[in-house]
Amino acid sequence: MTFHITKAVIPAAGLGTRFLPATKAMPKEMLPVVDKPAIQYVVEEAVGAGLTDVLMITGRNKNALENHFDRVGELEATLLQKGDIDRLKKVNYATDLAEVHYVRQGDPKGLGHAVLRAQMHVGNEPFAVLLGDDIIDSRDVLLARMIEEAGKRNASIVALLEVDPSVVHMYGVATVEKTDDDDVVKVTGLVEKPKREDAPSNYAIIGRYVLQPQVFDILAHTPPGKGGEIQLTDALQTLAANESLAGGVYGVVFRGRRYDTGDRLDYIKAIVQLAVDREDLGPDLRPWLKEFTATLE
């Protein structure tokens, strides 16, 4: 039977407190990265991997997300009347990008709880989870590779990134074993945000998952963990420890370009990195950056 995934789940219920006061009235997922909101990059990635059915897990004050992927008749009519066809195409592109659905998380009980809220929509089939804080460069393949491995191994797949040991406390970290594929490892254990001295490796989970539907039953019985929240990492640990349950857990090691928009400094870096590669901005931005950096001590 051909392995086929169509559904992507994007948790987007967080309060974005790191970016206050900017996120007091605007969802952090709508913060612009150059000229597109961060969430649009994530949806585009899902669609690029063939996932056209997108479920966003939202919370209060997230109406801007729904508005962004909906029609805006007055704006479209104004742009058409002005003959501003290029901007009209960009507006319509976001509207027609995917079939987007929404469900509220309700209580903020953690990432695992947010994923569990998707069970009714996903049903009994594999699905992908994409976190909005991580933007994967569209020139580098990750999600499609993960889907390929999920079908090949009939297992759950996480995206792993080798990070500096000094920052392992910021991630879920995996214990791994090599496989015959250079970019694939078997995950035998997972721990959420360990101390540096307790980390089993420097393989950190970044915000991309391809999960077997059995994870829902596990999440439903997973008690609160780190931070008093239901952790997706804890459920994946159960899957990794019981390979017969749903094929175990494997990791695709990503060595491409990733932009972290969940931290203020990294958010600024992401904007600069993406802008310098743009054909419409890069030619003017690169010389200015060189001049500007030359003035710094």
Structure in words:
The chain has 297 residues and is α/β, with parallel strands linked by helices. The protein has 2 domains: 7-262, Spore Coat Polysaccharide Biosynthesis Protein SpsA, Chain A; 263-297, no CATH class. Helix content is 36%, strand content 23%. It is built from 12 helices and 13 strands. The protein has helices spanning 38-48, 63-68, 73-82, 85-96, 111-116, 119-122, 143-153, 214-220, 232-241, 243-246, 264-276, 282-294; strands spanning 7-11, 32-33, 36-37, 53-58, 99-104, 127-130, 134-136, 156-162, 172-178, 184-192, 203-211, 249-253, 258-260. The strands form 3 sheets. A 9-stranded mixed sheet has the order 5-4-1-6-11-8-12-10-9. The chain starts with 6 loop residues before the first strand and ends with a helix.
Helix vs. strand class: alpha/beta
Number of structural units classed as domains? 2
Biggest β-sheet, characterized? Answer: 9 strands, mixed
Low-confidence parts lasting 5 or more residues at pLDDT below 50? Answer: none
Gross morphology = globular
CATH superfamily of the largest domain: Spore Coat Polysaccharide Biosynthesis Protein SpsA, Chain A
Share of residues in helices: 25-40%
The average pLDDT value, as a whole number, equals 91
Provide the CATH architecture of the largest domain. Alpha-Beta Complex
Counted beta strands: 13
**How are helices and strands ordered from N to C?**
EEEHEHHHEHHEEHEEEEHHHEEHH
InterPro entries: GalU_uridylyltTrfase_bac/arc, NTP_transferase_dom, Nucleotide-diphossugar_trans
EC number: 2.7.7.9
Pfam family, one: NTP_transferase
Organism: Lacisediminihabitans changchengi
